[in-house]
Write a structure and sequence with these properties.
There is one protein chain. This protein has a 6-stranded parallel β-sheet with strand order 5-4-1-9-10-11, sandwiched between helices. The protein folds into 2 domains: about 140 residues, 3-Layer(aba) Sandwich (Rossmann fold), CATH 3.40.50.1220; about 70 residues, SIR2/SIRT2 'Small Domain', CATH 3.30.1600.10. The protein is α/β, with parallel strands linked by helices. The structure holds adenosine-5-diphosphoribose. The site of adenosine-5-diphosphoribose (APR) has 21 residues, from helix 1.
Length: about 230
């Protein structure tokens, strides 16, 4: 039987498409303190700054393209059952043709009512103060900010529990609950971790570290898995 494969991706997989990773420089995210632009407190303090920050990210997302690592996942999906758990808010997995993509931290091309997290809308342009949801509340980015719950985690835990192979790509493994997902793996599941500067992972599962950039390491691993099974 074909192994079930689950991927956990982070900012590193989109780095070669031209999107900066989060912890490039001392907690500064494109020159902003992360807490100023990605926390409920930051939103209350200066919503205009937060909206402008995400408007810039959204505009940039229109200009970048999926890379060879995203595309390698599409190839993997033509040979194996694959689920993609991503911490990224970009849509590069989808644009590369990946299926079964689960966004743990929200999506840049979606917005939601600040009062009702279930009123979610597609949104590809700039968002401004005064843009309202159906309930009359201000719209905010559909992004999970620091200190907020990660509702999607409940949906992905069972996927991780069923995985035979768990592939981690381009994540600093510093942000929970995503970083804790390895703790749900079956003891016999194998972990592959592709990252040019991998972080320590605390696990008793077999762990294979591939210290390479995503566009090099992932296509190679995909070829190996296809040849092996
Ligand atoms: N290929 C693969 N990995 C890369 C590449 C590359 N070309 N370039 C950098 N990396 C790796 C870095 O070595 C680092 O380990 O990507 C990782 C990026 O780590 P972070 O910047 O911490 O990003 P991530 O792990 O996705 O952050 C998790 O934190 O800020 C929040 O919600 C945000 O989803 C984000 C979460």
């Amino acid at each position: 039987m074909k192994p079930k494969i689950v991927l956990l991706t982070g900012a590193g997989i989109s780095q070669e498409s031209g999107i900066k990773t989060f912890r490039d420089a001392n907690g500064l995210w494109n020159n902003h303190d992360i807490m100023e632009v990605a926390s409920p407190q930051g939103w209350v303090k200066n919503p205009e700054l937060v909206l402008e920050f995400y408007n810039q990210r959204r505009r940039q997302l229109h200009e970048v393209q999926p890379n060879a690592a995203h595309k390698a996942i599409t190839k993997l999906q033509s040979h194996f059952p694959v689920e993609v758990i991503t911490q990224n808010v970009d849509d590069l997995h989808e644009r590369a043709g990946n299926k079964n993509v689960h966004h743990l931290h929200g999506e840049l091309f979606k917005v939601r009512s600040e009062k009702n997290e279930n009123l979610i809308y597609d949104w590809k342009k700039d968002l401004h103060l005064g843009d309202k949801a159906e309930d009359g509340a201000q719209l905010r980015p559909h992004i999970v900010w620091f200190g907020e719950a990660v509702p999607m985690i409940e949906k992905v835990i069972p996927l991780v529990q069923q995985a035979d192979i768990f592939i981690i790509v381009g994540t600093g493994m510093q942000v929970y609950p995503a970083a804790g997902l390895v703790g749900y793996l079956k003891p016999e599941a194998e972990i592959y971790y592709i990252d040019p500067s991998p972080s320590p992972i605390y696990t008793s599962n077999s762990l294979y570290i591939i210290q390479e950039k995503a566009t090099k390491g992932l296509p190679k691993l995909v070829e190996n898995l296809i040849n092996q099974y």
